[in-house]
Design goal:
494 residues, alpha+beta, eight-stranded mixed β-sheet, six-stranded antiparallel β-sheet, 30% helix
Length: 494
């Protein structure tokens, strides 16, 4: 028997769960296949939730609850002595949130189930066949074959993606760090800082709290490079921590240890017909900068509303292709930036390490350099390309401007985005044109008098980026331009 659904997502990590929640919230039938029977804390590798990701979660009503699960840090530390200040970010979230990945997953999974999507655990994706109308998805659960028919399939199934393999996409790149040790331990004299990281000649170490008295330690020993299968001796971890920090923080018992490696890889494209890749299935890189989970979540935020538009029949021409056009360059940029960080962390010669501190420290004291670094790491500075002749703000992230009119309760833009619709932000009390033709796809919001808006009118996409903007003052010309922009961006089809 074949089960029919609109979209199948393979992989119930953060990327797949955000995407499933977005689709289901828009009325798109969605099924998530997850080979694991259940999630455990030990699979957590990500601890940093950056500002742009928090903005995306805010647009879904989840940010404040997630923040309550962790601790915030207003600077991002590099190599122990260098720090990128986040205090001047143009965001409500001028910090990085330190909370384990499983806290993110719990919130996202609850949203998925509440919205009506299905998560099938213990189900392994085994293959696909696609045609012009849809995708046949093959899977098995306890050796029982399962068949699904969907309009689209998205692989969010990690670095060993079976979906990527099924569509024949290569995953070019190389290994950047071998033999990283992970350990969940008790620290009887824990560090005073929430996030603790340093790199020295012998290796580097990173310490982050789970929030329940346990700490996750990442440790790299330059002198011992072995295969992932080699057992981890806790004394190895202690030794690296003493190199890096001068103390092992009175490390006590462990509940889990493991060893893994880190690669830098990216597929040449994120779409093959009706199949898409997102998150680690599309790109992977070093853990430096804590950008992995964040980049995947932002992939999902970009793709979700576009897939929903395609399923519902109103997607403008080229909309699905824009996912690759916009997100592939971002993945490439993250590979470069995280790779640069890890290579600086691995610098061995003493003079080079001193130069790293002196030169880096001097550069980060320049406001423009610190601002750019903060924007890159946190995602706040990421923007997409704009068409020739478009307003200068098109493709940029929309600020969370204060509003005086946007539905019943929205007082700022990212609250208004919680409906999943485009938001047309203007300075007048009424929309310049009737929006009936776009029904629930577009809502109008009036910016507060003192709000700094990028233009007299700005059409903000569901993922918080500006799709169109104008400073046209003549009311007749403005109305014509708005109608043309809505027809192009949101489609006038009913």
């Amino acid at each position: 028997m074949t089960t029919h659904t609109d979209v199948v997502i393979v992989g119930a990590g953060p990327t797949g769960l955000l995407l499933a929640g977005d689709l289901a919230a828009r009325g798109v039938a969605c099924t998530v296949l997850e080979r694991r029977g259940e999630q455990t804390a030990n699979t957590t590798r990500a601890f940093a939730v950056h500002a742009r990701t928090l903005e995306q979660l805010d647009a879904r009503g989840l940010a404040d609850e997630l923040i309550a699960t962790g601790a915030t840090v207003d600077e991002f530390r590099l190599f122990g002595k260098l720090a990128v200040s986040l205090s001047d970010l143009p965001s409500r979230f001028r910090f990085v949130l330190i909370t384990p990945q499983n806290n993110v997953e719990r919130l996202l999974e609850r949203r998925v189930l509440k919205a009506g999507a299905r998560i099938l655990r213990g189900v392994r994706f085994t293959g696909l066949a696609q045609d012009t109308d849809g995708v046949d998805v093959h899977a098995d659960a306890a050796d029982v074959e399962t068949h699904l028919r969907a309009s689209y399939l998205v692989g969010t199934d990690g670095v060993r993606s079976a979906v990527r393999e099924a569509v024949g996409l290569p995953y070019p790149g190389s290994r950047v760090v071998k033999s990283l040790m992970l350990a969940d331990v008790r620290l009887h004299e824990p560090p005073s800082e929430i996030l603790t990281v340093n790199g020295v000649a012998e290796g580097f170490a990173f310490v982050a709290p789970f929030g329940d008295g346990w700490y996750r330690v990442f440790a790299f020993d330059r002198a011992k490079q072995v295969d992932d299968s080699e057992p981890v001796d806790l004394e190895e971890v202690r030794a690296v921590m003493r190199y890096a920090f001068g103390t092992d923080f009175a490390m006590g018992e462990s509940r889990w240890v493991s060893r893994f490696h880190s690669d830098e890889r990216q597929v040449p494209r994120y779409r093959v017909g009706r199949v898409f890749l997102a998150g680690d299935a599309a790109h992977c890189h070093s853990p430096a900068g804590g950008q992995g989970m964040n980049t995947g979540l932002q992939d999902a935020a970009n793709l979700g509303w576009k897939l929903a538009a395609a399923v519902q029949g109103w997607a403008p021409r080229g909309l699905l292709d824009s996912y690759n056009d916009e997100r592939h360059p971002v993945g490439k940029m993250v590979l470069r930036s995280s790779g640069a960080l890890v290579r600086m962390a691995l610098v061995k010669p003493y003079l080079a390490r001193m130069a790293r501190v002196v030169v880096g420290g001097a550069a980060l004291r320049i406001p423009a350099v610190n601002h750019r670094a903060a924007g890159t790491v946190t995602g706040i500075g990421i923007s997409y390309g704009r068409p020739h002749g478009a307003h200068r703000s098109v493709g940029t992230r929309a600020d969370d401007v204060e509003l005086t009119g946007a539905g019943e309760s929205a007082t700022r833009l990212y609250e208004a985005l919680r409906t999943g619709a485009f938001v047309l932000v203007g300075r007048e009390a009424e929309a310049p044109v009737p929006l009936d033709a776009w029904k629930s796809r577009v809502e109008y919001a009036t910016a507060a008098t003192d709000a700094h808006t990028p233009a007299a009118l700005a059409l903000v996409r569901p993922d918080g980026y500006i799709a169109w903007a104008s400073d046209e003052g003549d009311s007749t010309a403005r109305a014509a331009m708005v109608n043309a922009a809505l027809a192009e961006v949101c489609s006038s089809g009913q």
